[in-house]
Give the backbone structure.
Amino acid sequence: MSAVGAQVVVAVVQVVVLVLAAPVVVGVTREVRARAEGRAGGRVGQPWRDLVKWWRKRPLQATGTSVVSRIAPVLLLSSSLVVVALVPLVTAAPTVVPADLLVVVSVLLVGTVAIALLGLDAGSAFGGMGSSRHMMIAALVEPTVLMAVYALSVPVGSSSLSAIVDARRDDPASIASPAGVLAVVALVVVVLAETGRLPVDNPSTHLELTMVHEAMLLEASGRDLASLELGGWLRLSALLGLVGNLVLPWGVAGGTGPGELALGAVALLAKLGLLAAVLGAAEVGVAKLRLFRVPELLAGSFVLAFLAVTASALVA
Amino acid sequence: MSWRSLAGLIRRTGTVAEPAPPLPEAEPAGAAGVLGGSLQIRHVDAGSCNGCEIELGAAFGPVYDAERYGARLVASPRHADAVLVTGAVTRNMAEPLRLTVRATPEPRLVIAMGDCARGCGPFRDGYGVVGGADDVVPVDAEIPGCPPEPAAVVEALRRVTGR
């Protein structure tokens, strides 16, 4: 099989696995949280039911909205799908399209900007507030993502994410190196901020004044809402999967054979399940940060990323 | 609270949710078939004394836990499948209620919770009251009671989600 053909197969496998798994990942975090609150279980399948129902409903457009309201959901969903196809999740085989950290960050930003424009488009007060907060967080998150992955790429000598995951699997000692630990901790904080989880944003809030991500979606309905929610969930799953592969690089396929891909998919699902449960459990114990303290948290993670770069430069 | 004492508290408390009562046997209301076990609800207080709000809060609390049957309260009528009206509809809330129902995408339901929203109740002939929810918007399901018990709210919602 040609390199391009193999790449297409990998992309299709990753997209299919993640689209099926992303709503379940969200369901698992909700389930763990509900159990800790003393509630009954049975929530793992609920995001899937919600998604199917939204897909059947006809979207309503608020009066005065422009073409942005119709394009933004598609743009967010497709940017998430591209990220899912590029990031080394099931396999760390070298890719034809470079799964470069700059490419991944840029594609994520396309979705971020699309959703911020969507929040502004309907002209409601909460949407605009959500958009401005979202852009503030995005502006603080992006440099940290770049620095953290840069610190990981220095010892490998390549900025390709699959090369980084591959190198960490071959040399497990590098996972516990100071630079590796600092960079992963910084990355975890920005992943939480980027995907709108506690302590930066509360995904289950009904209080409009504290919303960030939800505030921008207030005017979306039906199919549009399905695209936006699935796009957000895919983003969370892809970034969780990337963190999982950086921390526990075992089980990631090295090539593109069918057996390797199947094994890689199973390993990925196990890591996603574990991380989703850890995320849900951790969220029980934290409160949402006041918005003006979010920059302090993100500045802290930037410092960690900066130290990681320094450490990797000094050690290497 | 430290993480350790929080973990201890969670372990000691265990599950407080009551075991699920059997699924109520009744004709599912309105658009229930299309929803497929998922019901997002926008709550509109059209002029309530807040008795219904307390019971509604309890229905979604850990003990009755309406969320396990697929129902969820949401922040926007655009996300909702059902508009849940509490209280007698006052003059000032008649138009906002109409607009909220119009902002909810089809297929949609309107549920009147409590005797006031059903057109009876203690405030029926008040000078600021237009009437029940039925006098302003078409109502698909009713929950009687003043205020209705959380169990009655959960039962009515389960009839819609079918779970």
